Amino acid sequence: MSALADGQLHGAELGQALSACRQDDALLADWRDYHLIGDVLRGAAPLAQTDEAAFLARLRPALAREAAGRAAPPAGPGHRPGEAANAPRYRWRRAAAVASLALVAGIAWTLLAEVAEPDETLALGTAPVHVAGPQGVVVRDAALEELLEAHRQQGGASVLPMPSGFLRNATFEAPPAAVVRAGAR
Amino acid sequence: MTQRLFCLWASLRTALMPWALAGLMSAGPAGAAGPPDAPQDKAASGARLQSWLGRMHEGNRIRAYVGTFVVSSGAHLSSARIWHVCEGEQQIERVDALTGTPRSVFRHNDQVLTLWPQTGVARSEKRESLGLFLDRLRTADARLAEHYSVKVPGQVDRVAGVSAEVVQLLPRDGLRFGYRVWLEQQSGLVVKLQTLDAAGQVLEQSAFSELQLDAPLKVDELLRMMQRTDGYRLETLRPAKTSLEAEGWQLRQAVPGFQALSCHKRAGQAGGASGLHCVFSDGLASVSVFLAPGAARAQEALMAMGATYTLRTQLQQHAATLMGEVPPATLRRFAAALERRPSSP
Questions:
Q1: For the whole model, what pTM was predicted?
Q2: Among residues 41-80 of chain A, which lie with CB inside 8 Å of chain B?
Q3: What residue in B sits closest to A144 (Cα-Cα)?
Q4: Start-to-end C-alpha separation, chain B
Q5: ipTM of model
Q6: Total CB pairs under 8 A between chain A and B
Q7: Closest residue on chain A to B327 (Cα)
Q8: A103-162: per-residue pLDDT in tens?
Q9: d(CA A113, CA A97)
Q10: Tens-digit pLDDT profile for residues B14-54
Q11: CA distance B243 to B258
């Protein structure tokens, strides 16, 4: 241990000494004592005695947990995600974000307050629902939305190249309403 | 086969590029759709148009990129994460919607797979419309130049962190919209696109908000993801092809510039009689005509959402819904021209 503390071990001897330390706590205690003696002799203020073994015992499982939870690159279609991988780490940040979002949402809802929200699950073939809103009459029609979807799927019929055509249609989700305009233009 | 021809076109275009650029340097149309060009001007304009369209496609072909794509239509905003790789003749993309219902769309050449993780449904289909561009260039279709002109204002903007030059595609009549396209300067990749009405107002806009060019992606990685559909209920769509004439319809008069591209039968809603979905295109814009028997409509309705207009009307005891990224006047022309064939009920 004395030779190890003095940096006089190399190669195989160094490896052997380090493995012995891993297995024998008494050797580790000797290691700490040698360094404490050295610090005192050199006049350096001794640091508070910390138990590295206990610290490492807490650190290693924490690192293992973090490595397991770290989000991998998109796993592909087989991945049915539940909670996002970064949720445990950022819950406290989300709490703060929710507060600011609530403020913004409050403003948005004030603006949209006049537009009623009909039931999302309109059965196919039911009559369109006309709702009076600030922009005029707003139509919610499940049949129309289905046709819009079909139009977008075939809407790659353009020489405007990908990404514009295909990506636009893959990105864009049918909005909840279309505005009725009276009269032709 | 189509992909090999596409590569041939790409090398042809590269050879013609210096000539095409010289054509661009010469005077172009000064403003919005003005008086019709003389035949030789139209031919030159057509060549410039073909050249720019080729450059846009070349840009999409040679790049691997990852980015966030945003589509703004009217008051509606959608965004998605995009991965794109092109290796030789293979193109593969993955689009993960960041707005609305979670879904992933994979495209491998003209094969498209859509996955909805929440419902566990996977839908596979072949989109023949994706191979259209190549056909048009192969037949040296000059019809595009009949209805659109190209204008390069010499403007360079910064989009998603890259320098992009602006190209305007202007309609020659009031039956279609114009476009403003931003191409990344080095490669020609389209990074932003605006659809404009006759007054130059932006109806719809789609653009990358964030873009990483030359991302280290491989076709194999995305292909493996595309093949992992365990746990999903796979539906394969093979809609029955048909034609307007076969279903007893005809166009009394063609709408200038628009040609029929495809026609498919649609399953009847709530067990009713089957309908029809026909797609027309002028090369840049497409119009869908949905026809279904019965269901009398009390009144005509015109709806607008961003650049997409929808006209619902009644055509000889059939319910018709016409929609497309075209002005309402175009939809009305289609509705006026559609009629049942004399021999049909």
A1: 0.65
A2: 74-80
A3: B321
A4: 42
A5: 0.78
A6: 186
A7: A185
A8: 555 444 444 433 333 333 333 344 555 555 444 555 557 778 788 878 877 755 565 655
A9: 23
A10: 444 444 444 443 333 333 444 555 677 777 777 888 888 88
A11: 15
